[in-house]
Protein 1
Amino acid sequence: MDGTSKTSKKKGIVPVEHECPLNILSRNLWVRIATKVASYSIRDLFNMQATCKVFLDAGSSDAVYQHATMWHIRLVSFLFYLDRPERRFLDRCVEVRNADAILRQGMTEYFWIGRRDIGMELLDRASTEGSVELGTV
């Protein structure tokens, strides 16, 4: 075999994709590892996802986005990432109830966009979800 996932016609030959040592561990364990990585550094999470399909799959889990750290993303950055991957990342974090992402969205809505009712609703949600930056954990 030349590195592809084709199987031989001989009986008992396992495809290359099943011989990958990363497949020895369960997806659940890889998701837990990716969650830990995301809780320290989003950049490391993205590097992990770019490494292989196993890491991409694990790193794309809702649990990972729910625990991703937001401390290095400035509030003002929301205004500049309106239709870019950074914005899609933050939107996904808000979707899965990441409290610090909800806090950023609420601050943006309240102060910069001027939608006070939506902003207050999001800020209240961030406080009940337990935002680390808001100090409600």
Protein 2
Amino acid sequence: MSDFNLSQALEGPLNLEDNGFEGRFFNMTEVQDEIFSIEDGLALLVSRNPKTLRHVAILLLAANRMRRGLSCCVRGLREEELCSAIMDSLVTETTVGTQSSSTTVTRIFHRLNSVTQCTLCDMVQKDVVYSSDELKLQAITLQGGQGERKVNFKMSKYMTLSDGVGQTVVLSIGRDLHMSCSLEDGKATLLLERCDEGELKKISDDGDMDRFLFFKRTEGVSQNSFESVKCRGWLISTSWEEESKPLEMCEVDSANRLTCFKLN
């Protein structure tokens, strides 16, 4: 019987040299190709040669994760959309951070040259629309032919020495209208505020401008949540059942609130 432990192998580092596998792992004379069908129109080509059980387990886990992620995709994706869906299902978005011995560390968020245009739709198919009269965002189930009511957001990405909680973004409408979150009487409030784009090029968390920043986290292929940088633990949300209600901030796991959105 082999003394191979699957759980230890999956958790441990892949060290080919220490285990004497490097020579035959790269021995191309023994390579064999095999094709696995994952979804309609999608196959996985595996070039293989003698490996350990750990290599096989990692391959199976990756293929199964890909299959679960793609099962919720819409059929008929374009090639670039299919490629993006595959990468989203296999890659977990991570921000690498550093720690300091100081009790108070000021972080500076620098805007990157990376802007995405998108609309937001919650997990029960309510789209986010904008009421210019009241400067409010609402979640509404739109009927056919009403697609022009969706808000086209400009999502700008920021970089900082973070603590690994997600990609930092600013959500804007046009050039000078931006989502913000501030704490009022112990409750986080979501607002639309006017602010010149130039003032958001570099943001420090030791002032009040970090109210415009949100941590974006992505799960699977299309579930995105937005947590306030200034008010940690508070997320952008919509009502679970009620129509035409404004977007609000809610705490994690709040009842009757939806905190995941699809970006279209």
